[in-house]
Amino acid sequence: MRPDRLLVPQQPHRSFDLRHECLPYFTNPWHFHPEIELNYVVSSAGMRFIGHNIERFSGGEIILLGSNLPHYWKNDAVYPDAENERPAEAIVVRFTPNFAGEPFWELPETKPIQRLLNRAGVGLQLRDPLRASIAEQLQELVEKDGLAQLTALLHILDQVARSEAVVPISPGYVPNPQLTRQSERLSRVVGHLMQRVEAPVSLPEIAELANMNPAAFCRYFKSQTGQTLTQFVTDLRIRYACDLLTRTEGSITLISEQAGFENVSYFVQAFRKKQGVTPARFRQRF
């Protein structure tokens, strides 16, 4: 995919970027950056997109993202609501792969961290009890400064590197080498599709968003995402249906319509192919 490149500001008093965000909703679009990112969602809920993976997120999750791994957190509709008393809150740490210098990662003590950062190219999610421990340490990290803050970050990374409570998010994902160039073309397209999951998809309309003719757009989209437009939209709708199945009590037919499927039989077939179970069985599990 071709998201926007996010320019992470450099802080003169710190070798890495650290921020504690408290917003009505997360504002960054679908994007990537060369910096490694450790993202702790303190409170919020919605759908997240990492590499080829689309899943629901909620408060408490901690994700480690490798260099140039596209990602996007899309809040539930309640978060842009001014009357919502629970903000979208996150603690985000970003640092360049060599922020401590290349020789630093060659030390015997830091080799595990170097291997961790390489593994993070597909995105890594922390599981308990590691997640709970790191969440507490990230809260404390914000209150530190200077060398104490830097050593605390290295200690966090070392704990994650040595733990087995870490699972890949988007296995097999390989960042496109062309991501080093800024591009808005598919960012516009994917943003449009994400905001209108349930709406019919018109190839001429989507191609026009990318300033391409339909045939050229289809070739381009497949070359950049590894999927046809139809496959991408179907995956997006199934993930949205998973969200509806776990959060609402609507019938399978109603959820099929809400997720943009015109035919409930096709919805059940596509859902089973993607998730390995029928929508009804999926709902029973959750």
TrEMBL record:
Q: What is the species of this protein?
A: Larkinella rosea
State the superkingdom. Bacteria
Q: Which PANTHER family match?
A: ARAC-FAMILY TRANSCRIPTIONAL REGULATOR, HTH-TYPE TRANSCRIPTIONAL REGULATOR EXSA
Q: Enumerate the UniProt keywords alphabetically.
A: DNA-binding, Transcription, Transcription regulation
Q: Give the CDD domains listed for this entry.
A: cupin_MtlR-like_N
Where the record annotates domain HTH araC/xylS-type, the positions are 187-285
What the entry lists under Pfam families is as follows: HTH_18
State the name under which the record lists this protein: AraC family transcriptional regulator
Q: InterPro entries, alphabetically?
A: Homeodomain-like_sf (IPR009057), HTH_AraC (IPR018060), RmlC-like_jellyroll (IPR014710), RmlC_Cupin_sf (IPR011051), Tscrpt_reg_AraC-type_HTH (IPR020449)
Instruction: List the SUPFAM superfamilies hit by this protein, alphabetically.
Output: Homeodomain-like, RmlC-like cupins
Recorded GO molecular functions are: DNA-binding transcription factor activity; sequence-specific DNA binding
